[in-house]
Amino acid sequence: MRTAGPPDDAGHPPPGSPGERRRFAELQERLAPLFRRVFHDRHAPQTVVVVPSMSLDAGELAKLAAATHYEERLLCLLMLLRQPRTHVVYVTSAPVDPAIVDYYLHLLPGVPPGHARRRLTLLACDDDGATPLTAKLLARPALLARIGAAVADPESAHLTCFNATALERTLAVRLGIPLYACDPALAHLGTKSGSRELFRRAGVALPDGFERLRDVHDVAGALVALRRADPTLRRAVVKLDEGFSGEGNATFAYDGAPGGAALAAWVRDELPTRLRFEAAGETWERYLPKLAAMGGVAECFLEGADARSPSVQCRVDPLRRASIISTHDQLLGGPSGQVYWGCTFPAAGPYRADIQDAGLRVAALLADEGVLGRFAVDFVSVRRGDRWESAAIEVNLRKGGTTHPYLTLQFLTDGAYDPDTGTYRSAAGRPCCYCASDNLGDPAYLGLTPDALLDIAVCHDLHFDAATQRGVTFHLLGALPAYGKLGAVAVGESHAAAERYFRGTVDTLLRAAWRRRGGA
Description:
Layout: H1 18-28, H2 31-38, E1 46-51, H3 58-61, E2 86-92, H4 98-107, H5 113-118, E3 120-124, H6 133-138, H7 141-149, E4 157-161, H8 166-175, H9 192-202, E5 209-213, H10 216-229, E6 235-240, E7 249-253, H11 262-274, E8 276-277, H12 284-294, E9 296-300, E10 307-308, E11 310-316, E12 322-333, E13 339-345, H13 352-369, E14 373-384, E15 387-396, H14 403-413, E16 416-418, E17 423-425, E18 433-441, H15 450-459, E19 471-475, H16 480-483, E20 485-492, H17 495-516
Parallel strand pairs: 1-2, 1-4, 2-3
Antiparallel strand pairs: 5-9, 6-7, 6-9, 7-8, 10-14, 11-12, 11-14, 12-13, 13-18, 14-15, 16-17, 18-20, 19-20
Helix pairs in contact: 1-8, 9-13, 10-11
């Protein structure tokens, strides 16, 4: 991206220039008064422009199957249309199947779908290539003009996205509306290295380790130092600073490691073949250039007979108030259990209070730094006898895999999470828990259309029931035909009930899908 040069034909300052940064800062000043007007008044007029671009490292993003369809995860924001004077402009790389849009509009409680549909503008680039959606938009001035035309009052509008980079800053300036997300200038706080440094400043426990690693010598030196500090250490983990969902991680096992002076040479020799990558197909030769480009960390792999991976979701609102939104237990897979698969809500373990306290300390520090919007703090919690020890491992300054399930539940039930009790109750007072995943994939789903999937769900009584506030909602439906992949959120009155809904849904969908394909 350019960092200097003359304004473009429309008079916008060049991307990354001091002029663009000044204009962005001016736009951001609108958020606080807009928040005061709109947040507690469902009848306040506003326009929300949703650009769910996954503006992430291209090499890391390529590891994610059906990556373009992940732009559909924020379709849960269509439920903002339950507010009768809210307009939503939703932009995607490729057009969203009308059946998927109808599905979300029919989930709206208390609003006729037709009324909501008139306040929805859907726009697409007609380009499902690997380039981030925001970059596609910036290359299409006519499409940017259509977005601008759909915003009735820029003073009552804001932009929301999956993650905020320099691309999203430029987009906000081109559209002339503020971005409700972290300023890209603060993105370093959400890298793996930045997270570790932040945890130390917040006084939050973290695994022993080293950050700002750039090459094989840095990594080998860190691995040697960790083993020397703890001769019983079995494994360490190496992480790319900008990896996500665990796909940039690799583990190093110390089995057979010598002691004393021989350790350094052994680690250096063993490193290229002993490092085990979480991402399928990753190699040492491809990993090293990524490490050099973005940096990384090495830290102790926390182990125990009973280990969990909880996370705390936080928000700093435009009034600079930090708060806890939710807690989750993450469900992980991959070769060593570091790849995100799904989650259960709320976090159930006795470690909940400890991670909330740590998460709030981190959130307060981020608020002081000027961070804005939603983010998550991930932990590893390990049982040690009759107590649990929790260590913070990273901050994700973006919406993540737990964002859309929680927003869906909140929009459907008008409820809230109570950090004091660790429970969620709907507006009607019903307790709610859920089990969710983005990664339900099977060859049986290949060729299945969203309409066919929803037909199966309705005919087998899986569909979310607004009266009981129980059942299942689906997402990533656009990935079904070509990738055989979808996501689901199963809501029940308890963790056990939600997990039963979830398991039953998976079993039912698979049986029905195989029958449609002529299988057993």
